[in-house]
What does this fold into?
Amino acid sequence: MPLGAAAEKRHGAPYWMVHRGDLHAALVSAAASHPDINITSGAKVEDYAIHRHGLTVQVRRGIDFAEEHGIALIGADGLWSTLRARVGNRDVPRFRQRTAWRSTIAAADVPPVFREPSVQLWLGRNAHLVHYPVGGGETINVVAIARDFREQPGWSGEGARSDLMAGFSGRTWSRHARDLLKLPAQWQTWSLYDLPALSQWGEGPVTLVGDAAHPMLPFLAQGAGMAIEDAAVLARYLAQSPGDIPAALRTYEEARRARTAKVQAASRRNGAIYHQASAVAFFRNIGMRLIGGEKLIARYDWIYNWREGEGEAPAVTAAGASGLPRVGSGLP
Ligand SMILES: Cc1cc2nc3c(=O)[nH]c(=O)nc-3n(C[C@H](O)[C@H](O)[C@H](O)COP(=O)(O)OP(=O)(O)OC[C@H]3O[C@@H](n4cnc5c(N)ncnc54)[C@H](O)[C@@H]3O)c2cc1C
It folds into this structure.
């Protein structure tokens, strides 16, 4: 698919590959330059109590507990969200019997073809491999996802290369892909989970954003993208309705529900397509060739052409959010 300048022209914004640490650094630096934002790390939100003027949040720092008072609580606490259960969703994330193996390699250590500024995606039986340069081209990010029945919750389990290579056997995988997989000294593993769309995102002055609200499989590379969209939409509704926080939060939830559920479902479907084998994979490959890069990228326009405010409910009014239409039909 043509990315680079073509994607920028098509979608009105560049397509960037960014190392997670660099994205965090950019966000932290933006927050640090804002006089009204304080960041406290190492603090775990355990519970909250809603009262007439907002809420009290119970926070644990090591063995110490403290109470914080606020007018709203936004749970951005990820896949294993404490607040998701607290607002009424008892379902736990479902293990999808796949593990993501992640590592980075110095660009100088890989063949020149792997240093090119493009996303390279390899599809195979029960596995796929994706790699691309990050950090201004100095580092290659490698993610290999393979079928795996061992569940290991967490971001950074340690993976043995021999286990990884078993999913990328020489019988069906290209030597070039396998040679790349042999390069990293260390691998981190991440078992893959998702959840069906939530019925309840919040209550009163409490809501969820990102993986806490809509955990998804990484087959569309959209989890963090959706979290950032959530934040932009939420900020706008809060700014429009500072005197009625619960109404702003309910309107935000309605505005985001359909789009994030659609991306969750599309990610699941992509996973099934990526990991096909035999005849189905053969026809998938022929189909992709026939469709061609231009038309393939057009199939993702509904993701990348999203604009804040498109297809959303009208602004929150003083009367509150109840009765506002559900969003969905307006989405591309
Ligand atoms: C292999 C893989 C590849 C991916 N690739 C992409 C990609 O290319 N593009 C993309 O957009 N997305 C991608 N994603 C998805 C992306 O990583 C997630 O969607 C994203 O990290 C979600 O962000 P978040 O802030 O909602 O949650 P997280 O990033 O999980 O952050 C949650 C934070 O909350 C903290 N926390 C948890 N509980 C509490 C508590 N009780 N109190 C206080 N803090 C708490 C955690 O310590 C953590 O810091 C990928 C995911 C995987 C697994």
Notes: The longest strand covers residues 94-106. Residues 317-332 have pLDDT under 50 and may be disordered. Residues 94-194 form a domain with the D-Amino Acid Oxidase; Chain A, domain 2 fold (CATH 3.30.9.30). The chain is about 35% helix and 25% strand.
